[in-house]
Amino acid sequence: MDALKNGVDVLFILLGAIMVLAMHSGFAFLELGTVRYKNQVNALVKILVDFAVSTIAYFFVGYLIAYGTGFLGSADKLIERSGYELVKFFFLLTFAAAIPAIVSGGIAERARFIPQLCASFLMVALVYPLFEGIAWNGRFGIQDAIKSAFGENFHDFAGSVVVHAVGGWIGLMAVVFLGARKGRYTKDGRVTAHPPSSIPFLALGSWILAVGWFGFNVMSAQEVGKISGLVAVNSLMAMVGGTLAATLAGRNDPGFAYNGPLAGLVAVCAGSDVMHPVGALAVGAVAGILFVRMFTLTQNRLRVDDVLGVWPLHGLCGAWGGIACGIFGQKALGGLGGVSLMAQLTGTLLGVGIAVAGGIAVYGILKPFMGLRLNDEQEFNGADLSIHRISATPERDAGF
């Protein structure tokens, strides 16, 4: 029976890893559809190669920092319990690799390729696992201190803060270090629009992410015996709330409509196992409105050229999800309890602080030594031709 249980758990978490791995194609198509035609190939290549770099960084360094154990021992030890620990690494890797995928959308169309791969390695090897270990493995005694002060641990079931807020705030630091795309903001105060190249590809990316998210959230139980249908329904309700709220707040703009479900899903990750479905609906709706309002504010008023809006979508909605868990997880609001608003606020602020400090350190080190962005001519020609020497539509460009 133990062998059967171990085998079932391995299959369960393997399916979760595959679903979250598939989400990375969603990141790719979401970015491909949002950037201009001359940067579409770069969007596809970045997500794939970033994932490869993330795997190396997490296997050799990041997982060790987060969980205090590595994979450099004998093969006999690695296949104990049907190789469960190895498959668990695969599952958690797909979460870690989401950090560079999130950042990629913010810095699109002007980032150099090799320096960004170096940044991805450092983020996944050092910055992300530091907070992952604190939140999900009780490392460094911080969870114990939070529980001693507020009566409960910081709770983040599937990564609103650990993955999304951390990725979004690192992304904001990257955008600040790179600066805006050429011509985006003029000296006379005008904002030049760079409309999405393909709404169908944008929508495809959003759909892939939304479907994969049910592996992201539900499979965060990591064992079949801990699976909860509540997580699935709460994810669904938050997705719906985010969709409707963003569509209404965004006045039917398809870019907002297809980012709305992602905003809701980002926000519900933390408390998806403790909220009532009505609470999840409200959390998703707030996230949808938050994304629309803050995307507009950052792009037009604050002049932060965050191409895909990764800071409002992941950074702010992720932080909202961490705090919302402490509100809607309370029994008074239909939740299961076992959460503390002050613990959630403390953990969320800690995650944001580590992300900001880590982003400043990574990009602050790389900028003077390697440079971060394409030169003016390369940016004008587009990352596809400048970096990969081919466009997404070579026949059309050649006049055939």
Description:
The model has no long low-confidence stretch (mean pLDDT 94). Helix 1 runs parallel beside helix 5 (98-106), helix 6 (113-137) packs antiparallel against helix 14 (341-370) and helix 9 runs antiparallel to helix 10 (229-249). Helices cover 72% and strands 0% of the residues. The protein has 17 helices and no strands. The radius of gyration is 21 Å and the shape is globular. The chain is an all-alpha fold and 400 residues long. The chain has helices at 2-34, 40-67, 75-78, 84-96, 98-106, 113-137, 142-150, 160-178, 199-218, 229-249, 254-268, 277-301, 310-328, 341-370, 376-381, 383-388, 394-397.
Pick out the low-confidence regions. none
Strand content: under 5%
The SS-based structural class is mainly alpha
Please tell me what the overall shape is: globular
Number of β-strand runs: 0
Mean pLDDT: 94
Order of helices and strands: HHHHHHHHHHHHHHHHH
Secondary structure layout plus pairing:
Blueprint: H1 2-34, H2 40-67, H3 75-78, H4 84-96, H5 98-106, H6 113-137, H7 142-150, H8 160-178, H9 199-218, H10 229-249, H11 254-268, H12 277-301, H13 310-328, H14 341-370, H15 376-381, H16 383-388, H17 394-397
Helix pairs in contact: 1-2, 1-4, 1-5, 1-9, 2-4, 2-5, 2-6, 5-8, 6-8, 6-14, 7-14, 8-13, 8-14, 9-10, 9-11, 10-11, 10-12, 11-12, 11-13, 12-13, 13-14
List the defining traits of the structure above:
0% strand; 17 helices; mainly alpha; 72% helix; 400 residues
